[in-house]
Amino acid sequence: MTGVAADLGGRPVLRDVNLRVDAGEFAALLGPNGAGKTTLMRAALGLIPLRAGTVTTGSAGYVPQRHDFTWDFPASVEDAVLSGLVGRIGLFRRPRVAHWQAAWHALDQVHLADLRKRPVGELSGGQRQRVLVARALVLEPAVLLLDEPFTGLDMPAQETLTELFTHIARERAVLMATHDLAAAAYTCDRLVLLNRTVVAAGRTAELRDPAIWMRTFDVGPGSHLLKALALPVPTEPVGA
Ligand SMILES: Nc1ncnc2c1ncn2[C@@H]1O[C@H](COP(=O)(O)OP(=O)(O)OP(=O)(O)O)[C@@H](O)[C@H]1O
User: Fold this and answer.
1) Distance (Å, rounded) from C-alpha 154 to C-alpha 150?
2) Which of 92-96, 123-127, 161-165 has the highest mean pLDDT?
3) Residues 199, 176 share a domain
4) Which of 33, 90, 111, 213 has the fewest C-beta atoms lying within 10 Å of its C-beta?
5) Residues 102 and 218 in one domain
6) Looking at the 3D structure of the chain, how many domains does it have?
7) Same-domain pairing of 236 and 169
8) Cα separation, 72 vs 119, whole angstroms
9) Both 189 and 215 in a single domain?
10) 240 alpha carbon – ligand 1 mean position (Å)
C-alpha cells in the first residue's frame, strides 16, 4: 500500500502508510492498542474506504481475531472452512466437488484433515485458530493477514501456529498483527512498527535503536518493553 490514509467515524486513523510485503516473507505488524493495525488490514482487504493512497494486494485472505467469529453454531470443521468460499459459491448454492476439495486441501495444510467432521464447538483454541487459517487459505490468497492470532493460546499452541505461518510464508506473503513483540522479533523476517503511520520497518537487527520503539509505543526509557527486547538502554534524553 502506498500513501494510505483512512478515517473511521470521521476521525483520522491511518496517515501516509507505505507498506509492502512480498511473497516468501513473514512480516509482523507491531504497535500499541489503537495504533491502527486492524484498520490497516481492513484497508488492505478493501473493507474500508481510503481517504488517500492506493492498495495493491492481488488476493488477500484474512484471519480475524478469534472473538470476532461465532463458534457456538453446530457446523463441522469442513463447513467452517467452506464458509470461506461463500463469495465464490453463492450464499444459498450447494458447494460443488471442487469446493469441497479446496476445503480439504486447506485443512491438510493446517494439519486438521482428521478432524474435518468434528463440530467446531468441540475444538481447542489452537485448533480453532487453525480452522480460521484454513478458511482464509481456501481462496489460495497471495497475502495472508493474521490479526493477533496468538491471543489466549498456550505456548505449545503458539509454537505450532508459528511453525505453520513460517511454512505458509514460503509461498505467500504473511502479515501478522501481534502484541507478542519478543516472539515476533525472534520469528519474523521483518518487523513493521505502526502508530497511525509506519514509524520504522526492517529486520529485527536493524531496529535496535530504542528511540524507534519508544516513539511507536509512546513509552519512556525505563519501559519493560525495551528490556524484554534486550535493547540498549538509552543514556541521553531521546528526541531532544
Ligand atoms: N468503527 C470505528 N469508528 C470510529 N473509530 C474507530 C472504529 N474502529 C476503530 N476505531 C478507532 O481507530 C483506532 C485504531 O483502531 P484499530 O482497531 O485499527 O487499532 P489496533 O492497532 O488494531 O488496536 P488493538 O491493538 O487494540 O487491536 C482506535 O483509536 C479506535 O478507537
Assistant:
1) 8
2) 161-165
3) yes
4) 33
5) no
6) 2
7) no
8) 9
9) no
10) 30
Percent share of the chain, pLDDT over 90? 77
Do 96 and 43 share a domain, yes or no? yes
Among 4, 37, 145, which residue has the most ligand 1 atoms within 8 Å of its CB, making it the best to mutate? 37
**Domain hosting residue 15, numbered range:** 2-203
Q: Nearest C-alpha to atom 29 of ligand 1 is from which residue? A: 34
Which of 4, 11, 13 to probe ligand 1 with, by most ligand atoms within 8 A of CB?
Answer: 13
Same domain, residue pair 125 and 222: no
Q: Tell me what ipTM this predicted complex has.
A: 0.94
Q: Is 65 helix (H, G, I), strand (E, B) or coil?
A: coil
Beta carbon of 31 within 6 Å of any ligand 1 atom: yes
**CATH code, 62:** 3.40.50.300
pLDDT the model gives residue 1? 94
Q: Tens digit of pLDDT for each residue in 64-122? A: 886 666 766 668 999 999 988 876 766 566 777 888 999 999 999 999 999 999 999 89
Average pLDDT over residues 37-45: 95
Spacing of C-alpha 161 from chain mean position:
12
Instruction: Give the single-character DSSP code of 60.
Output: E
- Measured by CA distance, the residue closest to atom 30 of ligand 1 is 34
Q: Is 64 in the pocket of ligand 1 (CB under 6 A)?
A: no
48: cell is 474500508
